[in-house]
Amino acid sequence: MARIRRIRRANPAWKIPAATEREYRSVLLRMTDAYISEVKASLKAADLNSQLRHDGIIDDLAAIWGHLKAVSRSLAGEVVPQLPRMFTRVSMYNDKQWRNVIKVGTGFNIPASRDTSDSGLGVDAYRAEPWLDRMQDVWVSNNADLIKSIPDQMDGRIQQLIKSAVVNGSSAEQLADQIEQEYNVTRRRAELIAIDQIQKGNAALAKQRMSDAGVTSYIWRGAMDARERAAHVAREGKVFRWDDPPPDGHPGEPVRCRCYASPSWAGSIFDIGE
Ligand SMILES: [Zn+2]
Q1: CB-CB contact of 208 with 131 (8 Å)
Q2: What is the pLDDT of residue 114?
Q3: How far is the CA of 87 from the centre of ligand 1 (A)?
Q4: What is residue 4's predicted lDDT score, i.e. its pLDDT?
Q5: Alpha carbon 186 to its chain's center
Q6: CA torsion 213→214→217→221, rounded to 10°?
Q7: How many whole angstroms from 211 Cα to the centroid of ligand 1?
Q8: CA of 206 relative to ligand 1 center, distance in Å
Q9: HEC string of 86-119?
Q10: What is the CA(200)–ligand 1 centre distance, in A?
């Protein structure tokens, strides 16, 4: 005779932390726009238009780039201290989603992350999540580097554009257009960093939390909309193992990937029936 099957219905969709994604995006765009304004003002003061044909222009600009470097460090210095809070928000949202997936998918209620008070289910101890601080430190450090790279990369490319303009004898108007495009590229890069890093943090948390619960494989689920990559649509509903990722990574790991891993409960700590 069959025992009670605890694993009872399809897992619900795993939602992405959209509010934190929006917040991080706007924080990075504010920083980037403040920096772009400073660069614009500095280049205007340097009077590129009339100075472009002067031999000493590159040397004259060195002092400006030195000043801008200090400005970019100070702007990044305002954003970096917000990163731990940002990661905590992603983690808490992810944990809420995870508990919901478990509740609907298996019928179990589990305590929140780091709430190890005994609920009588015998599955609580693993919620201490000793890896969480380390994961946060790594995420914060990676993001601090990426944030500093936003103005640094832009400065490098604008300096290159100015040098080329001097060497090639381009007009001041051509140079101004090229620099303007660089501002747009930089804004898009800031947005991409914000969205991608929230997704990657969320994906890493999901993977670790499932592994903690003894989940060894998952079903690939995507947004199934026009923006999803064809290669990911082709994986819809297929089973993958956490120790054997597809070539471009697990759901949420490739750039801008909004797919998620829906846990396969067999063999997990929630799999108590047959
Ligand atoms: Zn995807």
Answers
A1: yes
A2: 84
A3: 21
A4: 41
A5: 16
A6: -10
A7: 20
A8: 15
A9: HHHHHHHHHHHHHHHHHHHHHCCCCCCCCCCCCC
A10: 12
Q: Residue 104 C-alpha to ligand 1 middle, in angstroms?
A: 23
Instruction: Decide: 172 and 46 in contact? Cβ < 8 Å.
Output: no
Task: Tell me how far the alpha carbon of residue 217 lies from the centroid of ligand 1, in angstroms.
Answer: 17
pLDDT score for 14:
92
| Distance between Cα 252 and ligand 1 center (Å) | 6
**Spans of all domains in the chain:** 18-214
pLDDT, position 231? 96
pLDDT in tens, 177-205: 999 999 999 999 999 999 999 999 999 99
Low-confidence ranges of the chain (pLDDT < 70): 1-9, 116-125, 273-274
Ligand 1 centroid to Cα of residue 128, in Å, is 30
The H or E element spanning position 42 is helix 18-45
Q: How far is CA 174 from CA 46, 53, 164, 239, in A?
A: 17, 14, 11, 53
Q: What is the pLDDT of residues 141-155, one digit of tens each?
A: 999 999 999 999 999
Residue 214 region, left (φ>0) first, then alpha (ψ -120 to 50), else beta? left
- In this prediction, residue 71 carries a pLDDT of 97
Distance 167 CA to ligand 1 centre (A): 44
Q: Which helix (H) or strand (E) holds 204?
A: helix 172-212
Instruction: With beta carbons less than 8 A apart as the criterion, state whether 18 and 195 touch.
Output: no
